[in-house]
Amino acid sequence: MTPSTRNKNRDFPSNPQVTLSSARILLPVLILATAFAQVTTSQYDNARTGANLSETALTPQNVNSSSFGKLFSLQVDGDIYAQPLYLPAVDIPGKGKHNVVFIATEHDSVYAFDANGQPSTPLWHVSFLRSGVSTVPASAVQCPFIRPEIGITPTPVIDRATGTLYVLARTKESASLLSPSHYVQRLHALAITTGVEKFGGPVEIKASVKGRGAGGSNGQIDFDPLRELPRASLLLANGQIYLTWASSCDVAPYHGWVMTYDAHTLAQTGVLNTSPDAEESGIWQGDTGPAADTAGNVFFATGNGKFDVDVNGRDYGDSVLKLSPAKGPLTVADFFTPFNQKELNSNDLDIGSGGPLLLPDQLGPHPHLLLTGGKGGRLYVIDRDHMGKYHSGDDTHAVQVILAGSGIYSAPAYWNHHVFLFAADDVLKDFALVNGRLSVDPVARGKTQFIDPGATPTISSNGATNGIVWVIRSKGWNAPDRNAELHAYDASNIAREIYSSEQNRSRDRAGLCLRFNIPTVANGKVYVGVKSAVEVYGLLR
């Protein structure tokens, strides 16, 4: 099908990547609490729960249009699809300690800003462009979804232990004005304090596997840096950086690729092609990330393509894959494929449009569960220990399957025995989770309908109290440009919307929206990526 008809471009244990230490100062009338959260990866943790449990400043009582609104904007040089990341108390040489928000743009730039806007100019800024090196024009990838340029799309990841920010960037390059251009993708490892390259980086992304699939030659398939789009966020697990790819729209030939790089040397340690003897099977996941459990197993979903593993093939179209944590060659340890995969593929209803969520340990026969959804609107509940592989005729190999909406282009979020999901052309829904089973029908619904693609929720709370569900209303796949909208709901009853940036437009209206953006909530502020800026919201003085 053509790119215009295939709407793509779509990535527990207690939050291992969101930590909290607090200092409380007792004043005569009120208690001031300073929480030092850190957001080092997409959706706050490797389980992709979408929850920051360390938020003490923002509550359902004070997030309203009277006391909460837009504070300032951080101006950058390009559009922002990557979720902003956040670290407290970073010692910037010559500038002192700052709480820092890290921003990556499609203009191939990475910025470090003071998270409180003091100053509003960058603490440091790195550009990957130079003479003969430019961003990739949208016309080159033959897809209109990210335009006018493509540089850094997936959310980076931070290793706080080594002070390193890992970024995957794309460029168009030529040796001289007279030489032909070629396309390159590189993994960068930047010092969080200065933006300087580390570990001998960057490294160029190259790979080849044996196979008879599309675009191959002489029994080999080479990674194509022009056709392969890295959309799902980066993952740091098992001492490795996990990178994944699909395509821009569905421009052929393309494959789903997974590669790992040693986090300390940037040496490539593993390569997996999910359709070596076919095509497609891309890993989009709507800008959300592959997930990893505490044992180091990695999970992700593929979209479209042929599935033939049940007949001794090697192609994993429309499947959820589990990778072994062992270093070295990437191997599929287990998988789940819907019984109607052929129908899903032929109708472009792939399950790779949504990202996975790993639930905390549950009571009952299936303690370790994964949730993921697809364009058919079904939310699959899968046993991570025994994923079920493929079963013809029905989906009884899943723990549970719920028709949750018309199409899912996002990841659900988890908080306090509830799962929150915002499907396309729908409202926010809350499903109760009891002993490893989801309520078949939502226990609560929001009242504001979003167009396609819905949204991936973010939850802020102080542990199990003061929960707020945040979402960005963004651009539909073929809709005209519009302003982004930040919405907040009381997590204990999402029928109560407590704030919208449209309630006081003159003060709070955000810039032009992009597709799939996820807000970042940290230490009393909400960071919203838009075209060429991050809008910062918080309590008004």
Describe this structure in words.
This protein has 541 residues and is mostly beta strands. The protein has a single domain (22-539), classed as Quinoprotein alcohol dehydrogenase-like superfamily (Methanol Dehydrogenase, Chain A, 8 Propeller), CATH 2.140.10. The chain is 3% helix and 38% strand. Strand 23 and strand 24 form a beta hairpin.
Descriptive key words:
541 residues; mainly beta; Methanol Dehydrogenase, Chain A; 3 helices; disordered N terminus; single chain; globular
Per-chain topology:
Elements: E1 22-26, E2 31-35, E3 51-52, E4 68-75, E5 85-92, E6 96-104, E7 109-114, E8 124-127, E9 133-134, E10 136-137, H1 138-141, E11 149-150, E12 157-159, E13 164-173, E14 182-191, E15 203-204, E16 208-210, E17 220-222, E18 228-229, E19 235-237, E20 240-247, E21 257-262, E22 268-273, E23 291-292, E24 298-301, E25 320-323, E26 332-337, H2 341-346, E27 357-358, E28 369-373, E29 378-383, E30 389-390, E31 400-403, E32 413-415, E33 418-422, E34 428-434, E35 437-438, E36 444-445, E37 458-462, E38 465-473, E39 485-490, E40 497-500, H3 505-508, E41 520-522, E42 525-530, E43 533-539
Parallel strand pairs: 3-37, 26-30
Antiparallel strand pairs: 1-2, 4-43, 5-6, 6-7, 7-8, 9-13, 10-11, 12-13, 13-14, 14-15, 16-17, 18-20, 19-20, 20-21, 21-22, 23-24, 24-25, 25-26, 27-28, 28-29, 29-31, 32-33, 33-34, 34-35, 34-36, 37-38, 38-39, 39-40, 41-42, 42-43
